[in-house]
Design brief:
Shape: globular
Distance between the termini: 6 Å
Structural class: alpha/beta
Number of domains: 2
Strand order of the largest sheet: 3-2-1-4-5-8-9-10-11
Helix content: 40-55%
Radius of gyration: 19 Å
CATH topology of the largest domain: UDP-N-acetylmuramoyl-L-alanine:D-glutamate ligase
CATH architecture of the largest domain: 3-Layer(aba) Sandwich
CATH class of the largest domain: Alpha Beta
Order of helices and strands: HHEHEEHEHEEEHEHHEEEHHH
Oligomer: single chain
Strand content: 15-25%
Number of strands: 11
Largest sheet: 9 strands, mixed
Length: 311
Amino acid sequence: MVNYDYNLIIHTRKVSAEKLQQGKLLGKGIKPMKRILTIQDISCVGKCSLTIALPVISAMGVECAVLPTALLSNHTMFKSFTFDDLSDQISPIMECWKNEGITFDAIYTGYLGSVQDIDLVKKLIADFSNDETLVFIDPVMADNGKLYSNFDDTYVKANTSLCAAADVIVPNLTEACLLTDTPYREDMTIDEKKELLLKLCSLGSKTSVLTGVSMEEGKTGVLGFDSEKKEFFSVQSEHIDASFHGTGDIFSSVTVGALMNGLSWEQSLQIAADYTGATIKATLEDPKKPWYGVNFEQTIPQLINMLRDAG
């Protein structure tokens, strides 16, 4: 857990390297910083994918390395956008990292635009992960009962094989149904969703987390299954009747960042749910609220406080 102290930031130049190495600064231990690699597209404008993951994870005191799969002028909810596929850059980047001996404590994927990208990411996971590496897959491909228009059944099958290489996957209900070849119903019972989680873990992931699950009126959150402990778990937060682009990216980024701070699954997911809700609230209160994303930049101090309190 990283402890933030603004006096530390202001007076950094007055602190000797010896004291930093000994962890004596302000009586607090200095722990080695974790490094997360996140693999997803980057939209220059739009508050999603890498433009969320990089600042959010960094603010949580974790180094965030990035591997962009595509470059967009702005995300696809705008009327028009430019798109440049960067898939041909992934293999050379991987080779460079191998030559430099670069390693990662966690590998976190978001939106991957093609089967080719999925195949490259599977190779990257095989080359750069070990028993200590957390592999966190957000299989972004569908919502509200429908597959995104640029994907097909071939992409679903490829995403299913990617999930088999994960320690944890965090699909929404639509994605979970597609991954397990289960007919989609919005009104699934909790028992049916638990059965869905068992199917998801049978794909190969150690932990499956179903997002957007309400366990009680006025609440929403996640329902998960830990296949090693053979336990179901749930985290709930206040339901806010609003929808914004990029909130799933916030949830996943905060969860991975919290895990790298040494917090438990329940703590990490609770912080992610609460922070996502707080950010939606802050955006709704903004008279000029952007339709294309949420004001996560304004709520980062709250996230830091949540981490501090959890530690």
